[in-house]
């Protein structure tokens, strides 16, 4: 009989030993007949009627403490083909670079990964692909948040079903709600597994204030909070034992070493994972912090992920394809990026090609991508 390989291995770029999983065992007909079956009713009786996890998923499920221990989490970029579809080959290369650079986790389909420009089919597929190809080497945190609680519940069920280790949840945006509505929303989505709450009022239009986080902190599935409201806010949480990741790359060094943050959920680590690893793991280093500051400031001159997309294209790591409404940095800023790379050292950046200034007509802007 021909051997059977896991189907996930056909989807991954496996040039290194980062990729792969143990082949499934063949089960004989006799052993199949000896397996006991549970009734559908038993599954339906689970708390809040969320989809039950399969035995394999339960056995290998990541604990909340596993997520709380992560110090460097990269908000990974999603690359595109010229027609706007995902470029999984480029994505896999970028993921390999994150593993090699010391990132301990990735956010898939977050703000940086442009999850808000994806269909849910694309979104869940990318989470599953990342788990299948890299889940044994890095923790996969899927952004399954939504301004619709029902949609967030459904997406989170699917995310855990395809194997993600934790969920990232934003508060409902645009359609702002009350304090009790915020608490009820997060309670509804946290019952399924380890959860990171993301507070970024500049994008959602509504702060998640400390009384909400303090109430949510009693939930055993709250892994922690990605907090973008500054280091004083972070200190208030960490003094009370709440795990926090800085959501601001320019503040993450001080957040980690002076205000008690566990680490950072970073955009910059897409480009220089090794340097960001040093910033989070090797103690206070004001010299390195200042050395990175021109790059960090450049990345956020325009709303994220415009700078990152432009930078990765000029490094030759991804194709220069943008899904609208994102649009490349102007030529002046593209030229400035080359100077920043040369000053910091090309060897610290992902990719192998020489950095270059792309022309305007090198970029492909895609409006219809579904």
UniProtKB/TrEMBL annotation:
Pfam families: DHDPS (PF00701)
Gene Ontology BP terms: diaminopimelate biosynthetic process; lysine biosynthetic process via diaminopimelate
Pathway(s) it belongs to: Amino-acid biosynthesis; L-lysine biosynthesis via DAP pathway; (S)-tetrahydrodipicolinate from L-aspartate: step 3/4
GO molecular function: 4-hydroxy-tetrahydrodipicolinate synthase activity
Family of this protein: Belongs to the DapA family.
PANTHER family, per database record: 4-HYDROXY-TETRAHYDRODIPICOLINATE SYNTHASE 1, CHLOROPLASTIC (PTHR12128:SF15), DIHYDRODIPICOLINATE SYNTHASE (PTHR12128)
Role noted for this protein: Catalyzes the condensation of (S)-aspartate-beta-semialdehyde [(S)-ASA] and pyruvate to 4-hydroxy-tetrahydrodipicolinate (HTPA).
Protein name: 4-hydroxy-tetrahydrodipicolinate synthase
UniProt source species: Rhynchospora breviuscula
């Amino acid at each position: 009989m021909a051997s059977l390989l896991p189907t996930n291995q056909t989807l991954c770029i496996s040039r290194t030993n980062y990729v792969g999983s143990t082949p499934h065992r063949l089960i004989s007909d006799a052993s199949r007949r000896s397996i006991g079956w549970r009734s559908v009713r038993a599954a339906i009786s689970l708390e809040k009627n969320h989809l039950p996890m399969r035995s394999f998923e339960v056995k290998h499920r990541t604990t909340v403490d596993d997520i709380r221990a992560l110090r460097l989490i990269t908000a990974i970029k999603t690359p595109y083909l010229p027609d706007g579809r995902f470029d999984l080959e480029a994505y896999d290369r970028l993921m390999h670079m994150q593993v090699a650079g010391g990132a301990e986790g990735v956010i898939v389909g977050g703000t940086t990964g442009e999850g808000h420009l994806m269909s849910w089919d694309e979104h869940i597929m990318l989470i599953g692909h990342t788990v299948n190809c890299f889940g044994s080497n890095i923790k996969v945190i899927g952004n399954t948040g939504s301004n619709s609680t029902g949609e967030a519940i459904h997406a989170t069920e699917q995310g855990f079903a395809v194997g993600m280790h934790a969920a990232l949840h934003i508060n409902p945006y645009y359609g702002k709600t009350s304090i009790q509505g915020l608490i009820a929303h997060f309670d509804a989505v946290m019952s399924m597994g380890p959860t990171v709450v993301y507070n970024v009022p500049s994008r959602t239009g509504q702060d998640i204030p400390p009384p909400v986080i303090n109430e949510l902190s009693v939930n055993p599935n709250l892994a922690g909070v990605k907090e973008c409201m500054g280091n004083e806010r972070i200190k208030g949480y960490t003094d009370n034992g709440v795990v926090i990741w800085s959501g601001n790359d320019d503040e993450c060094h001080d957040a980690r070493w002076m205000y008690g943050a566990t680490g950072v959920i970073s955009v910059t680590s897409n480009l220089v994972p090794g340097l960001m690893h040093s910033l989070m793991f090797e103690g206070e280093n004001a010299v390195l912090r200042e050395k990175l500051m021109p790059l960090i400031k450049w990345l956020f001159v325009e709303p994220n992920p415009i700078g990152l997309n432009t930078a990765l294209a000029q490094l030759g790591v991804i194709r220069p394809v943008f899904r609208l409404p994102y649009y490349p940095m102007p030529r002046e800023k593209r030229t400035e990026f080359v100077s920043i790379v040369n000053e910091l050292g090309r060897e610290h950046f992902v990719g192998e090609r020489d950095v270059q200034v792309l022309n305007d007509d090198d970029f492909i802007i895609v409006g219809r991508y579904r």
